[in-house]
Inverse folding.
């Protein structure tokens, strides 16, 4: 397995739309309803889905797309910020370690290319597979966030994870 991250290209747009708008592809914990089919294209045309405040990167295994990561800058206070990240792996690639490795790579990238000291990721309490992936990627479980996400007509509890520079060891 050779997981790498790369910027979104125009021919990735149907793949991204599938992973955010097709209930069979989003997965149980990411299905929030149908989306405008032109939303991704408009965003890509605006800035290639990358800016100083965040973006989307494709998760690739060799030349094959396996999913995507999103990340965004969040203000912590007047003097600092942190990154928040999430991902969706295509159903045919789940359970193979791609998400774990992609999260590890993105954390390293964000720490190498910004002054942020913290990265956060959250998932639903019932999403045990993602919790394991985050822990394998080096994230620390911080706690349950009650009633934090609305999906499928109900409020769901979430679990917050974080990584700080010191967690990487060696380089910081």
């Amino acid at each position: 397995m050779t997981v790498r991250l790369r910027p979104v290209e125009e021919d990735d747009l149907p793949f991204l739309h599938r992973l955010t708008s097709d209930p069979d592809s989003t997965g149980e914990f990411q299905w929030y309803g149908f989306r405008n089919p032109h939303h991704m294209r408009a965003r890509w045309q605006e800035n290639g889905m990358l800016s100083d405040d965040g973006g989307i990167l494709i998760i690739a295994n060799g030349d094959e797309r396996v999913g995507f990561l999103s990340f965004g800058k969040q203000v912590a206070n007047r003097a600092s910020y942190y990154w928040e990240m999430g991902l969706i792996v295509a159903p045919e690639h789940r359970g193979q370690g791609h998400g774990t490795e992609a999260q590890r790579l993105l954390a390293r990238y964000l720490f190498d290319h910004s002054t942020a000291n913290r990265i956060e990721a959250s998932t639903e309490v019932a999403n045990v597979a993602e919790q394991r992936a985050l822990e394998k990627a080096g994230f620390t479980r911080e706690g349950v966030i009650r009633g934090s996400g609305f999906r499928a007509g109900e409020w769901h509890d979430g679990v917050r994870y974080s990584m700080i520079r010191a967690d990487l060891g060696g380089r910081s």
In short: The chain has a mean pLDDT of 92. The chain is about 25% helix and 40% strand. The chain has one domain: 3-168.
